[in-house]
Design brief:
10 helices; 76% helix; mainly alpha
């Protein structure tokens, strides 16, 4: 997604507002205040609150993928897992924004298409990276995606820990073993 610096600042502000206070606190005024612009500029760039939310989700997903091993082909299983390990620590606002949107979609069905796009984008990126590493087992690919999603949620809410380290080590071994047997 190509973005002007002003539009990007509004998207970052949107992510920050939702990450800090939830989707229900998202207003043009709050976004404008965080981006240090007039609230009319938010409406000018996005038209509606729903368009702002959709654009912010696409922005947050793109930022997250860039910060992980999901954006480029990893050299090996260790590099793949390393990109995921500290995702929540590196981009807590982007992750919190995304999870807030996921939860809000239970109450607001109009957000469902955005949530479906969220899951599909991450699942396809995960599948692409693992396939490039030589993993062909579709069930394993999906299991790894669900495990990684849970790991990021746990890191975001409770922080890391030895349990995450153990699971990531196991994922590395699974990827390596699956790639060898392919």
């Amino acid at each position: 997604m190509t973005s002007s610096p002003g539009r990007e600042a509004l998207l970052r502000a949107t992510v920050s507002v939702v990450a800090d206070s939830g989707l229900r606190a998202l207003t043009y005024r709050e976004v404008a205040a965080r981006a240090s612009v007039s609230h009319g500029l938010v409406r000018h760039h996005f038209g509606s609150r729903d368009q702002l939310i959709a654009a912010a989700l696409e922005f947050a997903i793109a930022e997250s993928l860039r910060e992980t091993s999901m954006d480029e082909a990893p050299a090996d299983a260790a590099e793949f897992a390393a990109g995921i390990e500290s995702l929540a620590a590196r981009s807590t606002d982007a992750q919190a924004f995304q999870y807030e949107l996921l939860l809000e979609s239970r109450r607001r069905p109009e957000l469902r298409e955005h949530v479906e796009r969220y899951y599909e984008t991450y699942r396809l990126a995960n599948r692409r990276r693992l396939t490039e590493l030589g993993v062909q087992d579709e069930e394993l690919i999906d299991a790894i995606w669900f495990a990684l999603d849970g790991i990021v949620l746990k890191q975001l809410t409770l922080g890391g820990g030895e349990d995450i380290d153990r699971v990531l080590a196991r994922i590395r071994r699974l990827v390596t073993e699956a790639a060898r047997s392919a």
